[in-house]
Amino acid sequence: MRLDISETVALASWWWTFLLRGVLAIAFGLVAFFAPIWGVAILIVVFVAWAFIDGVTSLFTGIRTRTTDRNWWLAILEGVAGIAAGIVALFLPSFATQILVLLIAAWSIVTGIVEIVMAIRLREQIKGEFWLGLAGAASILFGVLLFLFPAAGVLSLVWLIGAFAIVFGGFLVILGWRLRTIDAMAKVDAAHDYAR
User: Fold this and answer.
1) Gyration radius from the chain CA atoms
2) For the segment 52-76, what is each residue's pLDDT rounded down to a tens digit?
């Protein structure tokens, strides 16, 4: 199912949410790389914050686009998955090394699937939608690796999560800038039409 032009313009008006999510992911990745000795405690705190902010941003996008996007529920699903992952990590810190790895893996796979579905829907409307697809593929690959190697050391896990967050965030920042261009063009076209 593909978006029509009005749905694409409506999605593009929320370009800043993709940009914000990307910047937060990159910031999370940098913290994970440059502060690994803080251990699992900082990882849990940063992950909880990231999952909540990412989840709320996705929920906000889904709710705001429900009248213009036929599949607004995908953003809602992604938001609920992020918030749920954050809640579980926040209230079950004693199981951090076991549960957090599997929780992050499951969350990454769900997020990746949603991102790929959204990229497929955008493919005929904008150029550069593959960045969202790449972010989704990176998310799924990351989740699968965590499921396959859950016993990896804490430092390895921190670095793996940091690398994923930086790559994922980079893809979302690029997509956000692409959508920003579409939003700017739509505003120019709207102003031109109303000036007649």
Assistant:
1) 17
2) 888 898 888 888 888 877 778 888 8
Helix (H, G, I), strand (E, B) or coil at 196: coil
Per DSSP, helices labelled H in 36-153 are 39-64, 73-91, 101-122, 130-148
DSSP-derived letter for residue 153 is -
Q: What is the pTM of this model?
A: 0.53
Question: Would you list the domain boundaries of the chain?
Answer: 5-194
For residue range 93-134, list pLDDT tens digits in order.
666 556 667 777 888 888 888 888 888 877 766 666 677 788
Minimal CA–CA distance to 20: which of 180, 189, 184, 151?
180
- Output the CA–CA distances (angstroms, integers) from residue 196 to 168, 182, 184, in the order listed: 43, 22, 19
Rounded to 10°, the helix 5-12/154-194 angle is 120
Residue 80 neighbours by CB distance under 10 Å: 16
Question: Cβ of 121: how many Cβ atoms within 10 Å?
Answer: 21
Give 71's contacts (C-beta < 8 A, 6+ positions apart): 1, 117, 121
> Which residue, chain included where needed, has tokens 């900082």?
42
Residues 6+ apart with CB under 8 A from 103: 85, 88, 89
